[in-house]
């Protein structure tokens, strides 16, 4: 988004375009806000498979929501709340990564060391 709108803004005809400036400024906020439903879905999956403690999931979602709503109501800004939502997404990403690594190790067949040593 920054590359596209920055390139367009560098063109002389669009240099002072207010709409382009607003898109350049607000598009990252909109993109992060669009990921909030996906993050909530990931939270439900993490809760369902018990990949994190339920209190940790509730705290991360709750704090992010409170900071986002509080920032929008009282401070007229969303950047801190949306950055919290990015942090929650990375928290769940780490949980999924650990889970898939566990599944990978669980699929490896066990080798019987005694049978292997008698064959040699």
What does this structure look like?
This protein has 120 residues and is mainly α. Helix content is 81%, strand content 0%. It is built from six helices and no strands. α1 (2-10) runs antiparallel to α2 and α4 runs antiparallel to α5 (79-107). The protein starts with a helix and ends with a helix. The mean pLDDT is 85.
Features:
6 helices; mainly alpha; 120 residues; single chain; elongated
Q: Quick one: how many beta strands?
A: 0
Largest sheet: none
- Mean pLDDT rating: 85
* Structural class by secondary-structure content: mainly alpha
List the helices and strands and how they pair.
Elements: H1 2-10, H2 18-34, H3 36-48, H4 54-75, H5 79-107, H6 113-119
Helix pairs in contact: 1-2, 3-5, 4-5
Short description:
The protein is mainly α and 120 residues long. Helices cover 81% and strands 0% of the residues.
């Amino acid at each position: 988004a920054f590359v596209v709108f920055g390139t367009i803004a560098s063109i002389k005809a669009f240099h002072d375009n207010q709409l382009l400036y607003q898109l350049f400024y607000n598009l990252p906020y909109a993109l992060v806000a669009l990921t909030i439903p996906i993050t909530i879905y990931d939270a439900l999956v993490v809760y369902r498979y018990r990949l994190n403690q339920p209190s940790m999931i509730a705290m991360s979602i709750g704090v992010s929501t409170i900071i986002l709503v509080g920032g929008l109501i009282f401070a007229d800004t969303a950047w801190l709340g949306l950055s919290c939502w990015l942090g929650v997404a990375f928290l769940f990403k780490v949980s999924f990564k650990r889970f898939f690594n566990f599944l990978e190790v669980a699929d490896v067949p066990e080798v019987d060391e005694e049978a292997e040593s008698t064959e040699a």
